[in-house]
Write a structure and sequence with these properties.
With about 475 residues, the chain is α+β, with helices and mostly antiparallel strands. The chain is built from nine helices and 20 strands. Strand 9 and strand 10 form a beta hairpin.
Length: about 475
């Protein structure tokens, strides 16, 4: 080989190789100590991009599992409350059946049965009002089907519907306006001491009351009775607040007050008339969804078959009703749109048993049950049976959602996390066995480079021998 004083090419080459081998050892130590074979973008730009995308997906899947578990817990909360609702309804049915045993029970026992039923009704309402998950009410009807009138109208009307419920706006034409139930006196009012009982609410009257005074007393409790009063020339007229055939005015008397002195004889009773309405897709005609004002709530996952609306409008007018699902939404996937919903209908007493036909009394729901009469007890059994069926259906729906949607989603999400995590690991994590082999190789090469650099640095000493 040629020898030069100003250039030691062997030393330069050995030094370059040593630096390269030192970098290999350093990188290998980094990969072994961190557990990652990609510690910076320069290590594997494409691999880093894929790994970060997979990490984001894994994080979303894990959060989706947590979300879905929350949904399961919500269903368990609602189902637990519904279990108690079922228990209360069964107890109420037992009491109603006991009240039918007219050959062995007297009025005192019937009153005691009714008191227990009223207590159970209060418990039903309390459960519906207080059952919540994460601050969201579950059984008050806010998570079921809802409808709202969008047109600004004036007169309260009764309407009902039979079309399938999909979220959207439905235009309804009122063909015949609804009417209220009325009870019109036969002659002028005559004062007496006692009380008139309207829809189970007692209004005390005295011998000094005029017709105007009696009307004022009745109107003072109209929010409890659902009935308003008016008078003309001493003749009193009672009118239901509600419209339609389900509107009720039950009147009884106590003390010296009788039908003769209050209404001046047998009054004229006119039943309320349901509105006749129509819209594309069906005819509006039955009862199930209930409410007041401008918003109504109905059974979860139901159609509008049997819906009862208190709408505003006169005959020949047209209005829009917006129907929405007030369901509880849960994000059960890692991507936008991967959601599941749960609809839970209300279980307050006035929402249970609605829609029963062929009743002997004016009761329309469990809230109206009165077993102090034989007819009332018979109706109570029918209403409670319908309510039990409603709650059973709701519990069944919730159980199906829990098992077939939420628990299934948790299982599939968990499998996805396992598989995607394995894919991400193969891209980013260090293969320890392979890396140890590379580390050993790099160490040997570095030691060899050090030895050869030392040898190359000895080469200039040969020039000194030639110069002597």
């Amino acid at each position: 080989m040629s020898l030069r004083i100003n250039l030691n090419s062997a030393a330069l080459q050995s030094s370059r190789v040593l630096r390269s081998n030192d970098d290999m050892v350093t990188r290998s130590i980094e990969r072994l100590s961190s557990g990652y074979k990609i510690n910076r973008a320069a290590d594997n730009p494409a691999g880093l991009a894929i790994s970060e995308a997979l990490r984001a997906q894994i994080g979303g899947l894990k959060q989706a599992i947590s979300n879905t578990q929350d949904a399961v817990n919500m269903v368990k909360t609602a189902e637990g409350a519904l279990t108690e609702v079922h228990s209360l309804l069964r107890s109420m049915r037992d009491l109603a059946v006991h009240a039918l045993n007219t050959g062995a029970v007297d009025s005192t026992q019937l009153a005691a049965d009714q008191a227990q039923i009223r207590s159970a009704i209060e418990a039903l309402n309390r459960i519906a009002d207080t059952t919540a998950f994460g601050g969201r009410k579950l059984l008050n009807g806010s998570a079921g089907v809802q409808a709202q009138v969008t047109a600004g109208l004036t007169n309260g009307q009764f309407i009902s519907g039979t079309t399938a419920t999909k979220s959207g706006t439905y235009t309804i034409t009122i063909n015949t306006a609804a009417t209220q139930r009325t009870v019109v006196g036969a002659a002028a009012y005559t004062a007496a001491n006692g009380a008139i009982v309207i829809n189970n609410v007692s209004v005390a009257l005295t011998a000094s009351d005029t017709a105007a005074t009696a009307v004022a007393k009745i109107n003072a409790v109209s929010d409890q009775t659902g009935v308003t009063a008016s008078q003309a020339s001493g003749v009193i007229t009672l009118k239901s607040v509600a419209y339609g055939s389900n509107a009720k005015i039950d009147v009884s008397y106590s003390g010296s007050v009788t039908q003769t002195n209050f209404f001046g004889g047998a009054p004229t009773v006119t039943a309320g008339v349901d509105v006749v309405a129509s819209f594309t897709g069906g005819t509006v005609n039955a009862s199930n969804i209930t409410g007041s004002g401008r918003t109504w709530t109905g059974p979860a996952n139901s159609d509008l078959a049997g819906a009862v609306f208190y709408l505003n409008g006169a005959a020949a007018s047209t209005l829009d009703v917006v129907v929405t699902q007030g369901s509880l939404q849960f994000q059960v996937g890692s991507e936008v749109g991967q959601t599941a919903s749960v609809n839970v209908s209300g279980t307050a007493a006035n929402k249970l048993g609605v829609g029963v036909t062929g009743l002997e009394t004016s009761a329309t729901s469990v809230a109206d049950i009165d077993v102090t009469t034989t007819a009332g007890a018979r109706d109570a059994v029918k209403l409670i049976d319908k309510a039990i069926s409603q709650v059973s259906t709701l519990r069944g729906d919730l159980g199906a959602v829990q098992k077939n949607v939420f628990e299934s989603a948790i299982n599939s999400l968990s499998i996805a996390v396992e598989n995607i995590s394995a894919s991400e690991s193969s891209i980013r994590d260090t293969d320890i066995a392979a890396e140890i082999s590379e580390f050993t190789k790099a160490q040997i090469l570095m030691n060899s480079s050090i030895a050869m650099l030392a040898q190359a640095n000895q080469a200039p000493q040969a020039l000194l021998q030639l110069l002597r």
